[in-house]
Input
Amino acid sequence: MAITAGVVAVQGDVNEHAEAVVEAAADHGEAATVIEIRESGLVEDCDVLLMPGGESTTISRLIHREGIAAEIREHVASGKPVLATCAGLIVAASDAGDDRVETLDLLDVHVQRNAFGRQKDSFEAPLDVDGLDESFHAVFIRAPVISEVGDVDVLATWDGRPVAVRDGPVVGTSFHPELTGDHRIHELAFFE
Output
């Protein structure tokens, strides 16, 4: 069986997410075709969708300008999965804590941009993630903090704060799972 994975490619770790979803699919005996989404009309063809990190104000502005935002909401409303990482989490949240970010309201969480610190404060940490048998080595780069959670499942915490959540078909992480070579977060989002 083959799946079509769309990577919202207006900015961010597009290639790394593409590689991770292809490997995650292969681990489940499936092939994945990846398409890069920079304009409207492509999301409806996707079985799964990835919203990478980058700069949340830029991502928000471009997905709304290009008509991609409404298509992402329709994707989720139809029950199809999304993995939103770092800036993708900010854009997917119900409240970004920044009026410059027009969120998609896909995750019932409030976030604070760059709350774990600036680029120089980036760090790596082992996380216990619900649904994974062994810890996941997470990479935090200018990571947002999930400051409030609503009706979501918290999948992982760091320093007492949620860093991975699931709200229906949407998984959001404060960290960058695509940078680790470990594609279990992609598996958890798309194949579990």
Summary: Residues 14-27 form the longest helix (14 residues). The first strand starts at residue 2 and ends at 8. The chain has one domain: 2-190.
